[in-house]
Description:
- The protein is of the alpha/beta class.
- The chain contains 11 helices and 13 strands.
- The protein has helices at 33-47, 50-66, 85-96, 111-127, 144-157, 174-178, 206-211, 237-251, 257-266, 289-292, 322-339, and strands at residues 4-5, 8-13, 69-74, 99-101, 134-138, 161-165, 187-190, 201-204, 226-228, 278-281, 300-304, 310-313, 316-317.
- It has a 5-stranded antiparallel sheet with strand order 1-10-11-12-13, with helices on one face. Strands 5-6-7-8-9 form a 5-stranded parallel sheet.
- The relative contact order is 0.17.
- Zinc ion binds at residues 12, 14, 75, 164, 189, 231.
Amino acid sequence: MGAHTPGLVCGHHHLYSALARGMPAPPSTPTNFGQILEQIWWRLDAALDLDMLRASARLGAMEALLCGTTAIIDHHESPNAIEGSLEVIADACAEVGVRVLCAYGVTDRHGPDGARRGLAENERFLRAGGRGMVGVHAAFTCSDETLEAAAALSTDAGVGVHIHVAEGPEDADAGARLEALAADDWLLVHCVGLDRPLPGTIAHNPRSNMNNGVGYAQPARRPNPIVLGTDGIGADMLEEFRLAYVAHRADDVEASPDTAWSWLANGHRFFPEAADDRVCWTYDHADSPWHAAFTPGMRALDVVRADGEVLVRDGRATLVDTDEVRAHAAEQAERLFARL
Ligand SMILES: [Zn+2]
C-alpha cells in the first residue's frame, strides 16, 4: 500500500492548450518568447471554438486528476469564442470531478472591443456565482485603461486578478505599470523579470519558463507566497515539484526540496478543501519531499474527494470514460489543426 497525500493543486494552467500537442509547426521557427506567443499560442487560441474548448478542458482535467491533481487555477483565452467560454471550462471540470478557478485573460491585442468582451465574460461568470478571478493576459498586451478596468472589476467582485507578469523582456515594465493596482489577492504568474516587489501570490512554472527560454524566476528570493503551476503543460504536480526543486538547486546548490514542497502545499490557500482530498500513490514515501524529489514515475492509484466521491480507482477515472474523453479530444484536435 502506497503513501497518501492531499489532493494536489495546479496553481496556473491553460486548459485550452490540452489539444496543442502535435499541432502543425509554425511557418518559421520562433526565435524568442514574443515570437513563440505570436506564432504558436496566439494562432491556437484564435482558432478555438467552444466545442474544441470543451474537448480540451475535459482532457486536461482528466489528465490532471490521473496525476492526483484535484484543483486547477485556470487562465483562459479564446478570442473568437469568448462568451460562455468560462462556463464550458467549469462544466468540463465538474464532469471529471476536478475543482477549477476560472479566469478569462483580458487583452487589447484584438482591439478595445476584444478587451471589453473579455471583461464582460469575467463579470458574467462571477456574477452568476462562478468560482473565479478576473483574468488579464499581461500588462504588455493591455492599455492602462484596460488594466484599471480589470482591477476595478476584481475589487467590485471581491476576487483577485490572475495575470502573467514579466514572463519575458516584452513585459519588462509590468512592475511599474501594475504597482499602483496590484493587491494581496492577486495571482502574479512567472515574475521572471519583475524589477520590484508587488503584492500577491506568485505562480512559478519552471518547465514552461525553460521551454520558452525566458530564464529562471528565482522564486525563493521573493517575499511573496509561491504556488506551483504548469502554464498549460499538463498538470502533473509531483513532476512540476521535482523540476522546481532541481531548477532551484541549479540556482542554489544548498536548496532543500522542502522549499518546492511548500510551494506545492501553498496551492491549498486557493482551494482549502483540496487539502482534505486523499490521493493514494504507487510509492510508499510519496508524502516525503526528499523521497518525492528523487522518485520519478510515481502514479496516483486512487483519488477520493473530501466529500467521499471516488474520482480515480486503480488509476482509472470513474466519472468519465477515459477512452471516450481521449477520442473526443482527438476528433476536436483534428478540426483545430485543420484551421491552423
Ligand atoms: Zn500562462
